[in-house]
């Protein structure tokens, strides 16, 4: 029993220390880390560009968004598109990162188009984290991430 208490306390300490990081905050603004030599992809403010794989990164997205709320969240934040040529699942993979944490990927077709247009150069854009409601054990929503870009090329 004592072993599990110690592990639990260490996990809580790690989360607390990580959330104290000034780069990860529920009050994320549009100024954030930008990769050197990144191109900037612009959109029309509609945040209609979908990404994939967010289900695998719910813990990181929840932490970045500041946690769950009864009504859910809408958090606008800077994001980076980062090519991953050594990704074992797809050599064209392009990760979507927020404050250094992967939150999803471009779909395979969009990643291939991105890589054909930009090679290994990262790109900056604006992302919107949505969802994450919690209305009790039977009514919880996943977080999603949408990008404010017109296209990847």
Explain this structure to me?
- Strands 1, 2, 3, 4, 5, 6 and 7 form a 7-stranded mixed β-sheet that branches.
- The chain has 3 helices and 7 strands, in the order αββαβββαββ.
- It is 24% helix and 25% strand.
Strand content: 25-35%
What is the ordering of alpha helices and beta strands? HEEHEEEHEE
Biggest sheet record = 7 strands, mixed
Extract low-pLDDT stretches: 1-32
C-alpha geometry: globular
Mean pLDDT: 83
Annotation field: number of helices: 3
**N-to-C span:** 55 Å
Number of strands: 7
Could you give the topology of this structure?
Blueprint: H1 2-19, E1 39-40, E2 49-50, H2 58-65, E3 73-83, E4 94-98, E5 101-105, H3 108-118, E6 123-131, E7 143-147
Parallel strand pairs: 1-6
Antiparallel strand pairs: 2-7, 3-4, 3-6, 4-5, 6-7
Characteristic terms for this protein:
single chain; 153 residues; alpha+beta; seven-stranded mixed sheet; 7 strands; 24% helix; 25% strand
Summarize the structure.
With 153 residues, the chain is of the alpha+beta class. The protein has three helices and seven strands. A hairpin with a 2-residue loop joins β4 and β5.
